[in-house]
Amino acid sequence: MSALVVVRRVVTPVVFGVLFLLAWQLFVDVRKIPRYLLPSPSAIGEQVSENAADIVGSAWASGRNALIGLLLGVVAALLAAVIGMWIPLLQRLLAPLASAVAAMPIVALAPVLSIMFSATSDLPRRIIVAIVAFFPVFVTTIRGLSRIDPVHAELMHSYAAGSWATTRVVRLPGAVPYVFNGIRVAASLAVISAVVAEYFGGLQSGVGSRITSAASNTAYARAWAYVVAAIVLGLVFYLAALGVERLATRGRTAENP
């Protein structure tokens, strides 16, 4: 990697972030903005330092729910997409259903699932994450499976290969970049949905519940400290998905769906 690329990808975003925080701090100090309106970065940093152990614990709780729900959603989406390729009618039935599920607001779904299941269980939150993660992976996987080189299709036909053999040998390898495009989107959505689901009761162990608790007690700098934890958690999930994608695709690229 050349020095210019390093500057573009690493140094420039870091410098911009530092300048943004300095401008934020200066704005709050000069305008004397009250903490309950907009805490300064230094005040948020103090809360991060003072509550580091609890922040790590709550991020772990939210991250675990996000990861389990993400894995469930990805597996369900892959199975539905592959089965949909074998049975076109099922694909036509699943597509509008997946769209309807994607349009379902978390704020409406979370209380319903919390009532259906025990308030001491993380299952409702994991179900919400799985539902949210399902749609982008399903859509991109279907698109990837549908795009097959005519030469490859004719070759498999000449070998008298069945639909499963064609899917396993040609369609699935060709769909890998598309699958990971969906997973990258789903990884970020998994953290968002896991945190938002924690706003509606249940175990008070995650980042979302800590944010609402701090805000209700007018400890806004502490609430922002947990917001920072949620941001970091989302970045970790996105970078992990990106890293796995690079290992799996090994330089292959696909048109962004």
Describe the protein in words:
This protein has 2 domains: 1-31; 41-249, MetI-like (MetI-like fold). It is built from 10 helices and no strands. The protein has helices at 3-31, 41-50, 52-86, 88-103, 106-116, 123-146, 150-158, 163-197, 207-216, 220-249. Helix 3 runs antiparallel to helix 8 (163-197) and helix 4 (88-103) crosses helix 6. The chain is globular. The two termini are 27 Å apart.
Please summarize what this structure is.
This protein is mainly alpha-helical.
Q: Could you tell me the strand content as a percent range?
A: under 5%
Q: Count the DSSP helices.
A: 10
CATH architect. name of the largest domain: Orthogonal Bundle
Largest sheet: none
CATH topology of the largest domain: MetI-like fold
Overall average residue pLDDT: 83
Total strands: the figure is 0
User: At the first level of CATH, what is the class of the largest domain?
Assistant: Mainly Alpha
Taken together, the total number of domains comes to 2
One letter per element, helices H and strands E, the order comes to: HHHHHHHHHH
User: What is the 3D shape?
Assistant: globular
Stretches with pLDDT under 50, minimum 5 residues: 253-257
